[in-house]
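Sample entry (131 residues):
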Amino acid sequence: MTRGLRNNNPGNIRLSATPWQGEIRPSQDSSFCQFTSMGHGYRALLKLLRNYGRLHGCRTVADFISRWAPPHENNTSAYISRVCSTMHVPATYQPDTDDHDTLCALAAAISLVENGTPALMADVEAGWALL
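Predicted structure, serialized as tokens:
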């Protein structure tokens, strides 16, 4: 089982000073958040994606993924390609972060890249319900 799935953290969100709803504190993982449920992990992922658009000016899939998976830590261009391929959209596509289907599809695509296995949409939906 991958680290993200083991931690109920499908986006592999790093630890920060600000606690998330449903986050286990202290984490047993030295670098990444752990959540009480996969729904809470998806809630955090969805919330971050919304904030990237609202607070950080991300507009395109490429913008979102460049912030999510920066080049100093990832092969960002490959990550963008995989997310776009999964979503069947170009890198210039502008996802509506207030739209249920669009935001859930983006989160599921990120989870696939992070964990190597398709997201369970029931878990993504549980995250949306917690927003």
